[in-house]
Please model this.
Amino acid sequence: MIELKLSRVNQGSRVNRRGFLSATCRVAGPLSLAGSRPANADHDGGRAKSVIQVWLGGGPSQYETYDPKPDAPAEIRGPFRPISTCVSGLHICELLPRQAQLMDRLACIRTLSHENNNHHAAMHWMQTGHYGPPDKTKPEQTRPSIGSVVSALTGATASRLPAYVHLANDPLGEPTLLLNFGSAYLGAKHEPFRIKPARIGEVQAGEGYLDDLTGRPQFDLPAVDLLENVSLDRLESRAELMRQLDSGLRETEARLSVYDDQRRQALDMLVSPRARSAFDLSQENPATRERYGRNMWGQAALLCRRLVESGVRFVTLNTDAYSLAWDSHKALERDYRQMMPWYDRFLTALVEDLISCGLYDQVLLVVAGEFGRTARINGNAGRDHWGPAGVVLIGGAGIPGGCVVGATNDRGDAPLASPVSPGDLWATVYHKLGIDPHHMLPDELGRPIPLLARGEPVRELIG
Model:
């Protein structure tokens, strides 16, 4: 993943090319650059220009979000009541009152279904459209993420901006939570530009790991800031020095070309007023920032809107990389009461902002996690992993608002109709972007690999 780290540049007068490259941008993942071609011009599914993915990693409960079962026994229906929405006959959890008034602009898939209950394998499946290795002790992303594929096939909509941005804090002892968002064999050029919001502010007193999310009254983005003593002129001088050093170090041209791409993007982000402005939340009206919520989730969602508005093609807001909030094996009622108002607030503000800015017809919003939760509440007052039934919220870019895809049984743990696989979900997204879901890209050995293992666009969502 790309991450600007200019704070390391000023460490002495001696200039070392390799050290400067490492200081300017860190490249993770393979350096092979797979070939690609633009989206299929004959494929007529496109209406979306950009995608915002809100990732509820860990697995949100369908019962406590968009598929409540009020008539089920208490150990299944859970602690919360359903509420009516602005769509007749559509009910969602009482903890989502703001979203309830916007469901005519959103579609709900109630039958996300696959056969895996393992975090890593299911996340790989959901982020790439291919089943992934289940062994988290030896994690490996074997296929590129959707964001990386979009980067390879479409690029950004504006120059000097990355095509793919990933917003998340570092995980707490869970590197696999960030692994499956990378480019795999597409190479470092299509890794996400990773933004790590600074952990600043005082943590509010309280119980549970979720409290830290409220300890961010500001949203600092040091990754795209210059040091106080590094001017743009000095940065340009250092870039010129690197170019001179490079002229005598071209023994591995293909490999260095990838470093050049990463370095160029890093420098472009710093010298372009438009690019730097996209990341500057201080330009927003304070009332707007309050409307999203003065916490990490809220301010990151506002940044998502600014990024697609400026030309970024694919943005992922990873709500789970720090808090682990959605993996609700215990104390589900406590945790959901705490975090759901933040989630309800920022997602509603994001949809309303995209509508008011005239972007909602151009931006596709996808809200999902890797699986749903078990029907029966366990002995720790939580729910466990469950792949066969989960929920997805999707909207914008011509998606029919108020649509409900599929239905589950009375227990909420199996589809009765219209099961939607991870491949079906992403085939729908590709279709909306004008990308042929059956297109192939070469891997590191030049073998043609399909974008998805299998999947077709969801008929109810594409019109």
The first strand starts at residue 50 and ends at 55. Residues 197 and 221 are 6 Å apart (CA to CA). Residues 1-38, 199-212, 214-223 have pLDDT under 50 and may be disordered.
